[in-house]
Amino acid sequence: MDEYEISLPCTLGVTLCATGDKLIAVKKKSQEVFPISKIQSFKFAEPGFLSNGMISFKIAVSSDLVNIGFGVNVASGGEQYFCYTKENLDKARAINDYVTGYESRQASASAAQAVPSNTVVSVVDEIRGLKQLLDEGILTEAEFTAKKKQLLGI
To answer: Phi/psi at 132 (nearest 5 deg)?
Structure first.
């Protein structure tokens, strides 16, 4: 399970893994994927003196209805429970931090991708510098126009 950022061994032969934008419950021959963006509620409980710790979360699955007969449909998915032992408390805390910090990581990534406002000023300054080179005869009109279009993304 090296491909996962965090792997938490849980009871009943399940491992809860965190990677990218999802949690994955890995069983012997199968896995179930839970997008973190679809988690409506998340609970983390540390182990007690005589009890295991637990991670539970509820997934938004309104579109995943299962017909159970007699015209009755129920939502699949719903609440997920994962119990872990005291030895894995650090990994459980890491999963908790991973999920609860997801929105702030997404916001940081979006902010990093946004174009800084000083970029606009530097493009304008660069075009002004190119215009000066044109006026001095260092650049041709075609070279100036081509570079200007490139800088403006036209």
So the answer is: -65, -40
pTM above 0.70, yes or no: no
Per-residue pLDDT of 7-29, as tens digits, reads: 999 999 999 999 989 999 999 88
Per-residue burial over 2-28, b = 16 or more CB atoms within 10 Å of its CB, e = otherwise: eebebbbbbeeebbbbbeeebbbbbee
Same domain, 135 and 61: no
DSSP helix/strand/coil, 139? coil
Range of the domain at 144: 117-152
